[in-house]
Amino acid sequence: MDIKIDHKTVIVFDLDDTLYNEIEYLKSAYLEIAQKLDKENYLPLYAHMFSLFRNNKNVFDFLSEQFKVSKSQLLTDYRAHKPKIKLFDGALSILKNIKKYNGKIGLITDGRTTTQTNKIHALGLSPLLDQIVISEEIGSEKPHPNNFKVFESRYGKASYYYIADNIKKDFLTPNALGWRSIGLIDNGLNMHSDRYLYLDKEYQPQNMIISLSDLNISPK
Q: Counting beta carbons within 10 angstroms of the beta carbon of residue 93, is it exposed (0 to 12), middle (13 to 18) or buried (19 or more)?
């Protein structure tokens, strides 16, 4: 898919399962928690935790009972850890090309400020982003219009694109606002797999791509 860029082009991305796979954040947190709870034998514990997760069992209930640690502490450890995660292949070059041609890059992500900021830093995104909207900071989650209108208020009349993955909440508002919406197809590892429930047109992106490398960024 071709996108022509100039100084009046604003490309806004979702974060989780759009620029990287969120499951990698979960695995990073689980590994750190396992190492903290059982330094001598953390790999079998980590494997067991991930197996529980894959089978829809409550991992923190298990850990709380086995290691006599509060679930609130486990949640804090999970949310505050410094993750070992990496961008999808091709993502960095796309972001750099947008900047090269004077486009603006934004991010809209739902979640807690500490957690999402740690992800952004771990992925090396901070120097590339012109505007970041985190739901906890703004007081609303997608698809609330406020999360998108931050960009319109800042950049005014422009060509807006939104690139994301979650059919349930990502495309309703940008479609209604007249943005160009682009859906990244689940690579089989996404945390949200309920696309089949949202078949109405307003939920659908206007364009779809298999990977970020399908985006061809060039100057206007």
A: middle
